[in-house]
# Entry
Amino acid sequence: MGIMNFVPKVLDPVPGGKYVVNMVDYVVNWARANSLWPLTYGTSCCAIEMMSSSMARYDIARFGSEVFRDSPRQADLFIIAGTITEKMAPAVQMLWEQIPGPKYAIAMGACTISGGPFRYDNYSVVRGAEQVIPVDVYIPGCPPRPEALFNGLLKLREKIMKESYRNPWHEGETSKAGEIERWAEASKAWAAAEKIKDEEMAAAREAFKANPPEDYVAYKPVRVAKEAFPDVERPVVTEIGKSYKELYKIAKSVAPELSIFGKEDSSDETLDSLPKDLPLDVVVSKENYLKLVEFLKNDSRTKFEVLTDVVGVDWKDHFDVIAQLLSVEYGHKMFVRVSLPKDESIPEEKRATSLLASIPSLSSLFVGAELKEREVYDLFGIKFEGHPDLRRLFMPEDFVGYPLRKDFTHPHILKKPV
Amino acid sequence: MSNLPPGFREPSVEGEFEEYYLNMGPQHPSTHGALRLVIRLTGETIIEVVPHLGYIHRGMEKQAENLGYTQYIMMSDRQDYLTAIQNNLGVCLALEKGAGIGVPERAEYIRVIMTELGRIASHLVFYACYGGDLGGQTVLLYGFKEREMIHDIFEEVTGQRLTTNFFRPGGSRMDVPDTFIPRVKAFLAHLEKTLPDYDRLLTKNIALVERSVGVGKLTKEQALAYGCSGPVARASGVNYDVRKNDPYSIYSSLDFNVPVMYNGDCYDRYLIRWQEMYESIKIIKQCIEKFPAGPYRSKEKPNFKLPAGSFYAASETAKGLYGTYVVSTGGANPYRIHTRSPSFSNVSAVNAMAKGEKISDLVTILASIDPVIPEIDR
# Structure
C-alpha cells in the first residue's frame, strides 16, 4: 500500500481533498475491520474457547472472522491463544513476522497478559505476549469466554476504524521496559489510585455522617449458620490381584536386599499393615534394579507388562527414581524405587549443571520408557545408562540447570511477593 | 547411521526416492496444539517420526512445590483442558488417600455424573476434530454443538465452562443446584436423539472408512510396551479400564461395559470412543435414578495438609490412565507432585503407528490419538 500512503500528502492541500481522504480511509477501514482473518494458532486452554467461538453456538462469522487460516501468509489477525513458553517464543515471533501487514494481535487470556497463573515461581513461561510481539487488544480471563473474545474483536474493530492514511498503520513496538520496572510503575500507579480513593471515600463518609438520608437504617450483619459437614469414613478396600505378601516374596527371591519404602522391617505384620489402596513400594539396589524389573515383567505370577511412569524425587542428599509398574492382567501395581546418592566428587560450583547420579535404563524392556526417562534426565539431571537417545525432552538443548532439583535457581524465576 | 539428526535411528532405505525430512509444528492445525514432529520420509512413505516436546512446558510440577495442596487442583485444570473435571477428580483422589478423608454418597454421585459428562464432552471434541482433520468441516460444527450444552451444565454447577476447579478433597466446592438433575435428564434425552444421527453421519462415511481402516496399526504388545492407556490401548485389545479394574468412587456399584476392540487401527480408536459415549450415558442414567440427598462434602479442614509419605491415585480420564503421585513431608506445600498423563504415553507410540504409512495418514493417526499437548508437557 505504498502509494496509498501518499494520498493525503497530495490531496489534503487541494480544496475539498481532505474529504476524499476521509472517505478513502473510511472505505478501507470498513473493509479491513469487517474481514479479519485469524490465524489458526493455539497452545493451550484458550485455543479451545477460540474454537468454541467459531462453532455453531457462538459463530464468529457474525463478525467476519470465520476464515481461520492455517498459513500465516493468508491471515491478518493473530489471536494469541494460550501460554507462550520460552521455547515457543521464537516460533510465535516467526509467525508474527510471516503475517503480512496490516496485521493485528489479540492477546487472549491471562497467560498472554502477564503469565497468569504461571507468573511466579516459574522458569519457563514468558510473562505476557507483549514481550515477544506488539499487541493491540488484551482479553482477560482464564480462559476468556467466547463472548469476551467477541468483545475484544469489537474493540479491535473500533481501533481499526480510527486509522487513517495520514498516519499509516504501523506494526507497533514490543514492550521495551523491563519486567520489574513495569511492575514497579504499575504498583506505584495503583498505590496512588488507592490513596485518592481512600481520601475520596473518607470525605464521602464524613459527608454521609453529617447529613444521612431520612430512611437510613444502620447495617446489621446477619450471622449465617455455618453448614456442618459430617466426618465420613473411607470405605474398606481390598488388594487387587496378588497380595502384598506374595508380591514381596516373589520380588525378594530375585533381589535379596529388597526392603519396603519407609518401613524398618519387612515382616508379615508390616506387610499386612500397609495401606491397601496404595501400591507396594519397594526399595531395591541399583545393581539389581534392571534384573528385578525384567523378572517382574516376565514372571507369570506378576506380569508387570506396563511401565506407567518413571518418576524422580530429589531428597536433598539423594535422588529417588521410581518405576511405576502395572499389571493389566491381574490389576496389581508396584513401585520399584532406587535410592541414588548424589555424586560428591563434583566440585560445588559445577554441581548445578552436571549429572549427579546414574541408573540403568529400562528402555531395553519397555520402549515407552525412553521418553519417560528422558523427562527425568531433563528435569533432574540423572543419567540413564544404556539409554539409546538421552537428550533433553522439555527444555531447550541449551538450557542450563535441572529445574526439579530442590536447589535449582534460574534468573527468569520471579519470587511471589508475600 | 551416524550422520542422522538426533532421535533418528532407522537404517536407510534403498529405494527409488530420496530420503528427506519434514518438520510439522510446533504451529500446525493438525497437531492439536504446540506439538512438533520431525518426519523422515522416502517419497510419501514415513520411515520414522520423532516427537519434539516441551513447547508448552509450563513447569507446573516445580510451581506446585510453592502452592498449597488444594491450589494444585487449579493446575490440573490447565493440563488437559478437555477433561478438566476428570483431572480435578484424579488429584482429589490422591489427596483423599493421603489425608484419609471419606466422601459422602451424594458427593460421589455428583462426581460420577460430572466426570462422565466431561468424558462425553471430550469425546465429542474428538469426534469433531477427527472429522475436521479428515476434511469434514460439518462434523466440526456438530460435535461442538452438543458440547456447548454440557458446558452450560458445567457453568451452572461450577461457575466455569472449561477450567472447572470444582472438586475438593472430601467432596466438591459447592452443592449442585436443584435444576441440575432435571437439566442433565433433559440433556441426555436430547443427546440420545442426536448422537445416532451424528453416528450415521460419519461412521459409515466412505471417505472416513477409507482413510482410517487399517491405518496406524498398533498391536497389543506395542500398546503395552509404550504404556498406552485409555481408548488407544483398548482399541488394540488391552482390556484395562481403571474404572473397572481398580474402581474408585462408586464405579464398582454401577453397571457398565468396557468396550474393547482388537484391530488397533484408527477406525477402531474412533469406534471405541462412540461406544464409550453410549456407556457414559448409561452410567449417568443409573446415577440420576439413585441420586441421593445429603451433604455434598465431608468435614472441611482448614489448612489442608497431608501426613508425611507418598500417595498415588489412578483415575480414568477420557484420554486414559491419569495418575497423581504426591510426596509429602508433612508441610503445608507438597514436596513433589507428579502427574502421569495419558497423552504422554499415547503420543510416544506415534512412531510405531506411523511407520510405513503415508504422510497424509499421519494426520489421521494424530487425530485418532486425540492428544492434548499441555497435558504432555505439563
